[in-house]
Amino acid sequence: MMQQVLSHFGFKEGSYNIQPFGNGLINKTWVVEIKLSARTYILQRINETVFKHPADIAFNISLMGDWLSKTFPNYLFTKPINKINGHPLLKTEFGYFRMYPFVENSHSIDVVANEGQAFEAAKQFGRFTKNLSGLTVTQLKITLPDFHNLSLRYQQFEMAMQNGNEKRIKESKEWIEFIVKHKNIVTTFEELTKELKLRCTHHDTKISNVLFDKTGKGLCVIDLDTVMPGYFISDVGDMMRTYLSPVSEEEKDYSKIEIRSAFYHAIVNGYLSEMGEELSELEKKQFYFAGKCMIYMQAIRFLTDHLNNDLYYGAQYEGHNLIRAGNQISLLKCLMEFNPE
Questions:
Q1: Would you place residue 188 in the very low, low, confident or very high pLDDT band (cuts 50, 70, 90)?
Q2: Rounded Cα gap, residues 174 and 302, in angstroms
Q3: What confidence tens digit (pLDDT) does each residue in 235-293 have?
Q4: Which site in 7, 125, 172, 205 is 20 to 30 Å from 224, CA atoms measured?
């Protein structure tokens, strides 16, 4: 299979070494090293179960790449290389593939170790949105419809309470009551999105989607499949959801969950260092809500999936998504007790 795929990019059999790369959960990724040169590439197969229209992703990346090459030619923007026939997206019987040049002297990290990394990541995501501020955002295709639509997520949660696993509903009473009690977050989201500006938003701002140089400075953002029109609260909120606690959403011991104040301010300051002049006064007041919104949304999604017998996320053990939901609810409780001033 691999030789058939790589031949479309001009690579001859025996001229390269290929092996799995990274730990991404959605797309399958390999690193391709050319034997007789120092060139290295990243090959990806797009997950069509998640991304129903891979051509829309290719369109978005091309649109952004063309805009940035004209307006910010020195900005490091990762885009796929073209196949022999001049197109970046390859459709085969094995699925959709694309090839990226490897960014030399760069690395990614999986866990935020210090506030400096949080600042650099927030700065890079802010710069990404700022540099694309002149692009007509409605030109971008919607690659994941309603991905961060909190209103829809709450409706799905309500449907799960009506039609889901009755045994699991009873077992989840504490978390269900918490979600219902804080439905005001949904109301605030609905009111805010009537006022917030639609921007070119990454939507998946975990630390592993930033490349760093050897000195720890951010270089650029990667994994652009989820870039769509959206609101800044998605990017800022997802950083808070994934950077603030010293443990991940998989942690079963909720006592280890906490809000690291320095990391909170690093996110705010890093993002504002690029987006300070772009954001409205209303937006600048919503950093704290952004964290609440995205943590609450993820808690809903995990709990909904548990009630629906783990149809979306799947489960590695019994009650996995209930544990994840409790983890995110515990994180939200900590954030609600946190004073950002």
A1: very high
A2: 14
A3: 999 999 999 999 999 999 999 999 999 999 999 999 999 999 999 999 999 999 999 99
A4: 7
Q: Which tokens is 196 given? A: 């917030």
Handedness of CA 220, 52, 136, 283 (dihedral sign): negative
Q: CB–CB of 131/192 below 8 Å?
A: no
CA–CA distances in Å: residue 244 to residues 113, 170, 197, 239, 323: 11, 31, 25, 8, 19
C-alpha dihedral (98, 99, 103, 109), degrees to nearest 10: 50
The tokens describing 111, both together, are 């866990």
**Measured between alpha carbons, how far is 273 from 155 in angstroms, rounded to an integer?**
36
d(Cα 335, Cα 338) in Å, to the nearest integer? 5
**What distance in Å separates the CA atoms of residue 233 and residue 124, rounded to the nearest whole number?**
15
What's 249's DSSP letter? T
Supply the DSSP symbol for 207: G
Q: Which tokens hold the place of 190?
A: 């609905």
0.85 cut: is pTM over it?
A: yes
Tell me the two tokens of residue 130: 């700022």
Q: Residues 286, 280: contact at Cβ < 8 Å?
A: no
Task: Please report, as a single letter, which amino acid is at residue 128.
Answer: F
Which pair of tokens denotes residue 159? 């449907």
Relative orientation angle of helices 150-163 and 184-192, to the nearest 10 degrees: 150
CA dihedral 240, 242, 247, 252 (to 10 degrees): 110
3-state DSSP percent of the chain in helix, strand and coil, to 5: 45, 15, 40
Q: What is the pLDDT of residue 24?
A: 67
